[in-house]
């Protein structure tokens, strides 16, 4: 029999970016808010303090800040006919763990999706014809427009403290920004970050080819900054320990640096760590949730009653918990009916490495969100009908770190060990760079999430099963990017260059790190038959459960997800405050 | 001769002695901290590895990152100490990994690690089987083969020409190579990268972690490394 705790107005599952945002916004209405975080507490001091955090082995290689697969993982297969097997140690993607979630170990790239990306299916059908969307492709409109979300992008960028330069400010195209971006109503709160040697070389070459380089919008403070919650950021010192690390310098945008210390001061906010939610408990009629059951740090089962449940865990965990709690009909790829687990998507990336004997790149100088970007081959710049695919990429260059266990780029053909490897590392460390494409990934009826029939998690619950593989459309997209990147790289006259882009027949491989941009599975939309949540991130079936995060994306955008995740969280928070709380009901 | 009677090969012994540097000199009394942190490799008491396994690691890492040429080899960098300590700790026993069955050891490699064995168990089973293979094929365990033959054996292990069945789909070679490079480049507090020699060799400044004024500067960075313990190289 579960112990029962005192009722709260709101329970939030997960205390990363979206949990912190919803916590702050709902506390500001005077509600009693409780956040349940399954991992441990994390603070800049002592958890990210110098010099202990500057430890590549512990955090970069052994994943010290990440989820432990022993505690929580998924099974993976590439097709219905394969038997899914556990993702036993981390590789392809790295969900975070503990307070701050993935928002503490990310790099900080903070983009807004293009307006066209929110209405992708309509945009493709209206401009390029329906034949480009084959029967297997499952892309949908989001049910919300860029214009509706614009004020909330602004809000997130100001809270997170983003460094960048507007390219389209109230319709005016401005030099140095991205001329292809959606119209912005205000400038970034801080100017762009200083750039590294490779980033500047790339920008020069891109400009010479007639492209439009801009400095990457970074969740990294370029100056000192105080955000709307009174949280202070200090200017980044380009320490080179960003991705996979907590920031030692109060410079990286994270729940810790931007929200949590202000939130923790609120008397109506409480958080409990090492408290893992097992299930959202529904009322007898299934139309509302009564609260959640979680396991406390002593291993005891606790029922926590609440009027409102905010799911703010990582994308994979939101979907898993919905499946375990019976929220939304599970998606069935055979009939294409059901919604929970539908439209899982990932990110289609590639890159070209360039080696320059005589250039000293000093790769250890860098921030997580360093780099110049071009959007000349982004989603709204490509004639899909002519090229024969749907999607796009941003192309960028910029070094994030030079930590030598992981960042040891060597020319193809260099032996992996022995005397030649040893001389190769001396010759080439610090003398190479790369140009990468970061691309959209369409959703497909065959790429989805459900419960695994065999493997159980540490609590005896069925693990979630991921069925995912690369599809020809996205391979064509990434090969197109190769055809654009290679001439650009060649124009820089490297001594050696080599490319790595997926080609036809590529199978998903869980071993090498790709991105932690897992999306979909609890997608937003305008029709309860084809989406799990409505445009306010409210579940169609259980009106007092709202689901934050990239699980809402109907397919993956060409950009990193956090900008959209943050904006959607503020958008949903406002709908809850202004519309739901006065009259709790389905908002659509 | 029982395997446990194997002594350091002459070459491994010489490399181990070099690694110990002046500490081997009878007339030099090293300070206490140096003794506790840097006993000569041939006096190091492994925490996990058996004497035979230790001989294998000394010999194999010496081929993966050889001592000749510029820069430290795995022996000078004390990579074997790193590997032993990693295997004795949470990495060796797969503390963070999901290890529940069923285990499909015939799964495609792209589905990731599916062996029921922990890394420490892979080393244990794999080294024993490889030493047996070397004895059957070349008349001696790996550590006592000549360098050229050792390179050939490692190459065959890497390519899959030598298949170890006891490691149950895990790759001893991949683990060994990964851990060797980790030990070479990780902070010295983990036992390898002795005196930050691998960082100095390639020009990585270690845990300095402050480069604001170096953004966009295209000339060699002038300062040597610092370690997490605050030592300068």
Separation of termini of chain B? 44 Å
Helix content of chain A: 10-25%
Kindly state the number of beta strands of chain A. 24
User: What CATH architecture label of chain A applies?
Assistant: 3-Layer(bba) Sandwich
Helix content of chain B: 40-55%
Structural class of chain A: alpha/beta
Summarize the largest interface: chains and residue counts.
Answer: A-B, 70 and 63 residues
What's the assembly state of these chains? heterodimer
Residue share in β-strands of chain A: 15-25%
Termini Cα gap of chain A: 37 Å
Q: Which of globular, elongated, flat, extended, rod-shaped describes the shape of chain B? A: globular
In DSSP terms (H or I, runs of 4 or more residues), the helix count of chain B works out at: 8
Quote the average pLDDT of chain B: 88
* Beta-strand content of chain B: under 5%
The unreliable regions of chain B are: 1-36
Q: What structural class should be given to the helix and strand makeup of chain B?
A: mainly alpha
Overall morphology of chain A = globular
Q: What is the gyration radius of chain A calculated from CA atoms? A: 23 Å
Query: Total helix count of chain A?
Result: 13
């Amino acid at each position: 029999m579960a112990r029962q705790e005192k009722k709260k107005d709101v329970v939030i599952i997960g205390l990363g970016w979206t949990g912190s945002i919803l916590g702050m916004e709902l506390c500001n209405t005077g509600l009693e808010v409780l956040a349940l975080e399954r991992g441990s507490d994390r603070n800049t001091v002592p958890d990210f303090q110098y010099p202990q955090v500057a430890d590549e082995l512990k955090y970069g290689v052994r994943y010290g800040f990440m989820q432990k697969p022993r505690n929580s993982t998924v099974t993976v297969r590439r097709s219905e006919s394969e038997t899914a097997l556990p993702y036993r140690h981390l590789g392809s993607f790295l969900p975070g763990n503990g307070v701050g979630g993935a928002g503490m170990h990310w790099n900080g790239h903070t983009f807004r999706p293009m307006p066209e990306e929110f209405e992708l299916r309509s945009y493709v059908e209206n401009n390029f014809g329906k034949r480009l969307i084959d029967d297997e492709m499952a892309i949908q409109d989001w049910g919300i427009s860029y214009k509706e979300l614009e004020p909330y992008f602004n809000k997130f960028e100001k809270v997170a403290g983003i460094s960048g330069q507007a390219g389209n400010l109230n319709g005016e195209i401005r030099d140095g920004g991205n001329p292809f971006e959606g119209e912005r109503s205000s400038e970034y709160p801080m100017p762009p970050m200083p750039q590294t040697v490779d980033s500047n070389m790339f920008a020069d070459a891109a400009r010479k080819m007639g492209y439009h380089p801009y400095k990457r919008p970074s969740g990294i403070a370029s100056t000192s900054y105080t955000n709307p919650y009174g949280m202070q950021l200090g200017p980044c010192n380009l320490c080179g320990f960003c991705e996979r690390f907590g920031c030692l310098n109060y410079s990286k945008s994270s729940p810790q640096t931007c929200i949590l210390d202000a939130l923790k001061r609120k008397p109506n906010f409480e958080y409990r760590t090492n408290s893992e939610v097992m299930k959202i408990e529904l009322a007898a009629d299934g139309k509302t949730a009564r609260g959640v059951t979680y396991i406390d740090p002593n291993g005891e089962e606790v029922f926590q009653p609440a009027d409102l449940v905010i799911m703010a865990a990582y994308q994979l965990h939101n979907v898993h918990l919905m499946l375990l709690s019976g929220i939304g009909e599970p998606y069935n790829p055979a009939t294409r009916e059901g919604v929970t687990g539908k439209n899982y998507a990932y990110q289609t990336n590639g890159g070209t490495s360039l080696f320059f004997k005589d250039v000293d790149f000093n790769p250890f100088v860098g921030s997580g969100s360093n780099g110049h970007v071009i959007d000349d081959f982004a989603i709204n710049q490509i004639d899909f009908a002519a090229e024969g695919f749907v999607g796009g990429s941003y192309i960028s260059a910029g070094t994030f770190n030079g930590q030598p266990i992981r960042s040891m780029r060597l020319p193809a053909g260099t032996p992996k060990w022995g005397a030649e490897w040893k001389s190769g590392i001396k010759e080439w460390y610090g003398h190479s760079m790369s140009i990468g494409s970061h691309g959209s990934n369409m959703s497909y009826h065959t790429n989805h999430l459900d419960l695994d029939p065999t493997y159980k998690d540490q609590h005896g619950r069925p693990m979630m099963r991921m069925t995912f593989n690369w599809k020809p459309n996205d391979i064509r997209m990434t090969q197109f990017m190769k055809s654009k990147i290679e001439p650009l790289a060649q124009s820089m006259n490297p001594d050696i260059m080599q490319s790595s882009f997926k080609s036809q027949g590529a199978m998903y491989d869980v071993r090498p790190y790709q991105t932690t941009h897992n999306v979909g599975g609890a997608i937003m939309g305008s029709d309860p038959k084809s989406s799990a949540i409505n445009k306010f991130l409210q579940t169609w079936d259980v009106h007092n459960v709202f689901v934050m995060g990239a699980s809402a994306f109907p397919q993956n955008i060409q950009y990193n997800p956090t900008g959209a995740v943050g904006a959607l969280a503020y958008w949903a928070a406002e709908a809850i405050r202004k519309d739901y709380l006065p009259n709790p009901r389905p908002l659509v | 001769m029982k395997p446990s009677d194997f002594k350091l090969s002459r070459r491994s012994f010489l490399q181990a002695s070099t690694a110990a540097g002046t500490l081997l000199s009878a007339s030099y009394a090293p300070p206490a901290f140096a003794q506790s942190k840097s006993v000569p490799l041939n006096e190091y008491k492994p925490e996990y590895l058996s004497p035979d396994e230790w001989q294998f690691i000394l010999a194999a890492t010496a081929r993966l990152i050889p001592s000749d040429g510029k820069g430290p080899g795995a022996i000078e960098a004390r990579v074997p100490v790193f590997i032993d300590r990693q295997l004795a700790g949470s990495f060796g026993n797969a503390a963070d990994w999901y290890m529940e069955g069923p285990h499909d050891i015939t799964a495609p490699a792209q589905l990731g690690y599916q062996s029921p064995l922990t890394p420490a168990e892979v080393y244990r089973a794999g080294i024993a089987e490889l030493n047996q293979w070397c004895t059957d094929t070349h008349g001696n365990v790996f550590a006592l083969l000549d360098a050229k033959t050792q390179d050939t054996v490692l190459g065959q292990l890497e390519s899959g020409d030598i298949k170890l069945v006891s490691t149950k789909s895990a790759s001893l070679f991949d683990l060994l190579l990964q851990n060797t490079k980790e030990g070479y480049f990780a902070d010295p507090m983990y036992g390898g990268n002795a005196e930050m020699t691998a960082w100095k060799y390639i020009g990585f400044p270690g845990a300095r972690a402050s480069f604001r004024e170096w953004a966009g500067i295209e000339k060699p960075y002038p300062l040597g490394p610092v370690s997490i313990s605050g030592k300068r190289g």
